[in-house]
Design brief:
Serine Threonine Protein Phosphatase 5, Tetratricopeptide repeat; 33% helix; 5-stranded antiparallel sheet; elongated; alpha+beta; 5-stranded mixed sheet; 5 domains
């Protein structure tokens, strides 16, 4: 009777609440309708953000050409679509394309072992913004009053029916609707599986604070990746996290003292039943001083006369020098700071030291900088190559206590160095058991698991020339070119399965003095007809990573470069290729650069005959050593500079004309003999050696002027610029 009585007292209140909610919904609907039709579109936000997280490394980030500072970087309110992210520092010089999705965080996080970036998307839906008050007309009010009366009657009847059913039914829990999997990344799912495998509680959360860098005196914020491993939704810091998903939450931290800092944060969270819990988490972050502007990283240990010294590499980005101890670091340079260490007096995985930094001018006062170093007995013994003693230390430590994830990772690194891979993998997995959200441990485990997988793939793939040392990073898909300058492979990058092209650079080319400077210039090129260079790596071997050509199908076979095409090609195809070639080379020349070795094998093809120019590394070596090898597309000035003058913009014009001649006629412009002495016999100022296409095919007569102005041995008779050549090709395009 008590239960029934409590039900009978509710119909009026329930009906009133239900009616009020629906009424508010109608009002908001009118507001939104009025706003879409007559309001500002800026009030509807479909933007997202990009986060670049690199652990304890300091990497300069630019997004769409705008400098965003050192990592970690959070760029908010970016428009949906593709954005260019440039990463420079700590051995990186890469360009990445990051896709921004509406109301989501695009997270670029680094794998410290493979030094590759992993792209993930995390939902960032906040509470919906209230619509501004909109003016309602008389008709709107009449409609609302009518709706109010109708809904009141319906609500009363429905409430009575519900009350009767509740009276006769048992208390059955309702099922929770499933949420989307947009934030269920592989990393998140792996942690959820790990935690649930050991028996998750209803409120089991994994907090993963990401190492952040904040500027002194600014608002300090640290990203904490929060993963809900329970079977129910949980609310953390105002965000509802569905079961099995993750969210990034921002935690304010103090930034008054420069240096490596830690902060214990009490994070409250609420489960589905409304119960509140509190979790203490340790947040590590760095406060970068701004006067002077400094960045630093741990560089290793040295030992001398039973004294251990830690080396810290410090970069001074200020406009004046700094002095640390006896070391002076000039502006915009790096220097190694030595920090003497005593014998470790505890078993913690790290220690902190305070150093004094003095400006080398009157620009500021001395600052005290706290630096955290990985240091204990195990680390010390490992640095002295006493690996057996280091293992004995860790085993003794773990016999007394389960230890921390960091200590298990340190043990795993010792085991790796002495070749005990399986034991090292066990240590890294043990670290994950202790801390499922430890990204460092996860990366170590993935390195082993992916390495074993790719070795098996490589065994079955048949690409025996693909370097085994790169199998942890890439899975070869196709060998598209094998030449003296290097092999080119289409690959899938292991970390995200993206398709790229890897070129294994010939050691003779990589050792050229001009190689590095040429690569630096290549990285600066951003044009649709220039092959995009993502990175150039020197370890374990020298290789280039670029965007992958899509290729075109000709006679039933996919062709990836102009060298693969069966010639001659149709006139329209040749013109389209020529236009792309001229536009790319015009871009180079307007930026003060040239190519000078337009080998057809280095001009790659995408769908619809869209071409991309590569091979800048080859051109650097030939310009360094001189053009002394047979190459049919070389201009006369490259063979006999004393007669025809130095290379110039007109050298590329000659080579572009030679490639077009081959595509249209199927033959080389000055004969098929590669011997340079005999080729030079054709080159005289009258151009009598050049056979114009119309002599064999009258339908190609519209190209005679083009070839006369590109393939003349005398540079003065060629086009002055690629803009002139483009104009000629455009006129031919409308005639074909």
């Amino acid at each position: 009777m008590v239960y029934q009585g409590s039900i009978n007292k509710r119909p009026i209140s329930i009906t009133f609440c239900l009616t009020l909610q629906i009424l508010l919904l109608i009002v908001s609907t009118f507001s939104v309708s009025g706003e879409i039709s007559g309001g500002s579109p800026d009030q509807i936000t479909e933007n997202g953000s990009i986060q670049v997280l690199t652990g304890n490394m300091s990497i300069q980030v630019s997004i769409d050409g705008s400098n965003r500072g050192l990592t970690p970087v959070i760029a908010r309110n970016l428009s949906s679509g593709s954005h260019d992210v440039r990463l420079v520092g700590d051995g990186f010089d890469q360009d990445l394309d990051a896709e921004v999705q509406p109301k989501k965080d695009t997270v670029l996080s680094i794998d410290p072992e493979t030094r590759q970036f992993c792209l993930s998307f995390v939902s960032n839906d906040g509470p919906p913004e209230q619509d501004p008050v909109s003016s309602l007309g008389l008709t709107d009010y009449v409609m609302i009053i009518g709706a109010f009366l109708g809904i009141t009657l319906v609500g009363a009847y429905a409430t009575r029916r519900v009350a009767g059913k509740i009276k006769d039914s048992t208390d059955t829990p309702s099922s929770q609707p499933s949420s989307s999997d947009t934030s269920k990344t592989d990393f998140c799912l792996a942690i959820v599986e790990k935690v649930r495998g050991r028996g998750a509680a209803k409120t089991d959360l994994v907090f993963e604070p990401l190492m952040m860098i904040c500027d002194e005196g600014t608002v300090g914020e640290v990203v904490v990746r929060t993963i809900n491993c329970s079977s129910r939704p949980i609310q953390v810091e105002g965000q509802t996290i569905p079961d099995g998903e993750s969210r990034n939450i921002l935690i304010r931290v103090p930034v008054n003292n420069p240096g490596d800092q830690h902060f214990i944060k009490n994070i409250p969270y609420i489960d589905e039943a409304g119960r509140e819990f509190i979790r203490d988490i340790l947040i590590r972050y760095r406060v970068r001083p701004v006067n002077p502007v400094l960045d630093w990283s741990f560089a290793g240990f040295t030992s001398d006369n039973n004294t251990t010294t830690a080396l810290v590499r410090m970069r001074n980005s200020s406009s004046y020098p700094i002095i640390v101890g006896d070391i002076e670091i000039p502006p915009d340079t790096e220097g190694d700071i030595e920090i003497p260490l005593c014998e470790p007096d505890n078993d913690q995985p790290e220690v902190s030291r305070i150093i004094s930094v003095n400006p080398g001018s009157d620009s500021g006062d001395e600052i005290k900088l706290q630096i955290v170093l990985p240091y204990n007995c195990g680390v010390l013994l490992q640095s002295q190559n006493l690996f057996d003693d280091a293992l004995s230390y860790y085993n003794s430590l773990f016999s007394r206590d389960a230890g921390s994830a960091d200590l298990w990772i340190q043990k795993g690194m010792v085991l790796e160095k002495i070749g005990r891979s399986e034991d090292a993998l066990f240590s890294y997995r043990q670290a994950l058991e202790i801390d499922p959200g430890n990204l460092n441990a996860r990366n170590h485990v993935n390195k082993f698991e992916n390495g074993e997988l790719n070795q098996q793939r490589h065994k079955n793939s048949g690409f025996s020339t693909f370097p085994s040392s790169l199998l942890e990073l890439y899975t070869p898909v196709a060998l598209i070119r094998s030449e003296q300058t290097g092999d080119c492979f289409i690959v899938n990058r292991v970390i995200d399965a993206s398709v790229q092209m890897v070129k294994i650079v010939n050691p003779d080319i990589a050792s050229s003095p001009s190689f590095e400077s040429t690569i630096t210039v290549w990285r600066s090129f951003h044009h649709p007809h220039i092959l995009r260079l993502f990175s150039c790596e020197s370890e374990p071997i020298c290789y280039l990573v670029t965007n992958s050509p899509e290729g075109v199908v000709q006679k039933g076979r996919r062709r990836y470069s102009l060298a693969d095409l069966s010639v001659p090609v149709p006139r329209r195809a040749a013109v389209k290729i020529g236009l792309g070639l001229c536009r790319g080379l015009s871009y180079l020349h307007h930026h003060g650069s040239g190519h000078y070795l337009l080998a057809p094998s280095e001009i790659f093809i995408d769908r619809n005959l869209h071409i991309r120019i590569g091979g800048f590394d080859n051109a650097a070596v030939l310009s360094e050593k001189g053009c002394r090898s047979a190459c049919w597309m070389l201009a006369p000035e490259q063979i006999s500079p004393e007669k025809y003058g130095p290379t110039s913009i007109k050298t590329d014009i000659f080579q572009a004309g030679a490639i077009l001649y081959l595509l249209l006629t199927g033959s080389r412009p000055y004969g098929n003999n590669d011997h340079l002495t005999q080729m030079s016999e054709y080159w005289d100022t009258s151009s009598s050696g050049l056979m114009l296409p119309s002599s064999e095919r009258p339908d190609l007569g519209i190209f005679d002027t083009l070839f006369s102005r590109t393939l003349s041995p005398d540079p003065h008779e060629r086009y002055e610029s690629f803009d002139e050549m483009l104009t000629e090709l455009e006129s031919i395009k409308f005639s074909t």
